[in-house]
């Protein structure tokens, strides 16, 4: 019998090395909720991937997640007689939706349990790769020249796939310029749901640029129109925002709404559901890759373990700490010159916040007690 002995929430804030602009807004800093969950005397860590200052990516954001974790989800776990990674989702199921808030606790419980067992997340997932090839996601730049410079810089660092953020009006010309500079690189685009079905001409033009995929072109709730668009273009559509669970993945695949899935464990409710999305896609022959939400080293460690699973056949947005922060919350994740990153293999997620960094970056802390 394992009880959750304590849950501590921290709101942490780390400046980004550069503002990150996407179709729905610009971030200058990373802010996230971290949960430290103590089970059998051992701490496990989970990082919430909800948005910083307003719910722009999904319906979740930090202030909402904080209240839900503090007042509802956290107390429910503290009140449960027995909590294991196998049933933590069941304890939280009475709350509908909110996968990002739930993932924070699911991942922390699993991390604690694996640390107690002395087992790494990557081995628990049955993944045997010890390093994963990495891509990078490049935000919307102020000019084409600036974008060119950023792409060159990341290619020089060794990144094996470049993803460009696009939005209506800042798309085909820019992407064509990069394709012109680099005819042979693995190149993709991500619209973060900014287009409408009427923008078909834009997609037809992008379709000529030999892209690996077009990520989340249309509204996140519109699988049917993604299927209609996929039928019109050769480039595979990849869904991100639309996939909040394995059930969503099954529906999207059956409808033909995508040929590739971006898995973000935080977006689907944690590592366990991420495994189910992986398995659902694998059975259907749909490749997946590991997305990111500008995570600190805590979320990054979790993502890297997942990215080592067999159906993660495409390079993901698992970039080095230096791509995001001058100083991470943990020891930094570093890109090897060959464009791969090592997967942590110490117990649990294999890393923890550095105490000095946690102290510096925490803007609010609260210990939750049973209701
Ligand atoms: O859509 O994939 C996305 C970052 C924040 C929110 C949404 C997205 C992204 C990224 C960056 O593309 C991924 C990363 O490097 O963490
Ligand atoms: Mg995306």
Give the number of domains. 2
User: What is the top-level CATH class of the largest domain?
Assistant: Alpha Beta
**Could you give the order of the helices and strands?**
EEEHHHHEEHEHEHEHEHEHEHHEHE
What would you call the shape? globular
Q: Beta fraction of the residues?
A: 15-25%
CATH homology-level superfamily of the largest domain: Enolase-like C-terminal domain
* Count of strand segments: 13
Class derived from helix and strand content: alpha/beta
Query: What CATH architecture of the largest domain do you see?
Result: Alpha-Beta Barrel
Report the major sheet: 7 strands, parallel
User: Unreliable runs, pLDDT <50, ≥5 residues?
Assistant: none
Mean pLDDT: 97
Query: Would you tell me which CATH topology of the largest domain applies?
Result: TIM Barrel
The largest beta-sheet arranges its strands as 5-6-7-8-9-10-11
Give the end-to-end Cα distance, rounded to a whole number of Å: 20 Å
Radius of gyration: 20 Å
């Amino acid at each position: 019998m394992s009880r959750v002995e304590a849950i501590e929430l921290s709101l942490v804030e780390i400046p980004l090395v550069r503002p990150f602009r996407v179709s729905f807004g610009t971030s200058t800093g990373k802010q996230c909720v971290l949960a430290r969950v103590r089970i059998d005397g051992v701490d496990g860590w989970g990082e919430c991937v909800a948005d910083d200052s307003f719910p722009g990516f999904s319906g979740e954001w930090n202030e909402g997640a904080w209240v839900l974790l503090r007042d509802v989800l956290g107390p429910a776990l503290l009140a449960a007689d027995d909590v294991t990674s196998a049933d933590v989702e069941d304890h939280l199921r009475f709350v509908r939706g909110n996968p990002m808030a739930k993932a924070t606790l699911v991942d922390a419980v699993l991390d604690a349990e694996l640390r107690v067992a002395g087992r790494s997340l990557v081995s628990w997932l049955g993944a045997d790769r010890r390093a994963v090839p990495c891509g990078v996601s490049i935000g919307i730049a102020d000019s084409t020249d600036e974008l060119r410079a950023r792409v060159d810089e990341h290619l020089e660092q060794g990144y094996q796939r470049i993803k460009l953020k696009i939005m209506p009006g800042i798309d085909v010309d820019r992407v064509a310029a990069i394709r012109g500079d680099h005819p042979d690189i693995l190149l993709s685009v991500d619209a973060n749901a900014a287009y409408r079905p009427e923008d078909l001409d834009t997609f037809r033009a992008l379709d000529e640029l030999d892209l690996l995929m077009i990520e989340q072109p249309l509204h996140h709730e519109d699988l049917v129109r993604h299927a209609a668009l996929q039928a019109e273009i050769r480039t595979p559509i990849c869904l991100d925002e639309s996939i909040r669970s394995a059930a969503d993945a099954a529906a999207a695949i059956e409808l033909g709404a995508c040929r590739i899935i971006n898995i973000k464990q935080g977006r689907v409710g944690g590592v366990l559901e991420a495994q189910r999305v992986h398995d659902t896609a694998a059975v259907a022959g749909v490749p997946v890759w590991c997305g990111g939400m500008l995570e600190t080293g805590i979320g990054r460690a979790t993502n890297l373990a997942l990215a080592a699973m067999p159906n993660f056949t495409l390079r993901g947005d698992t970039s080095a700490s230096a791509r995001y922060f001058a100083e991470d919350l943990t020891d930094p994740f570093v890109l090897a010159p060959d464009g791969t990153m090592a997967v942590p293999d110490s117990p649990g997620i294999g890393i923890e916040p550095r105490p000095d960094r946690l102290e510096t970056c925490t803007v609010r802390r609260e210990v939750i007690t049973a209701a």
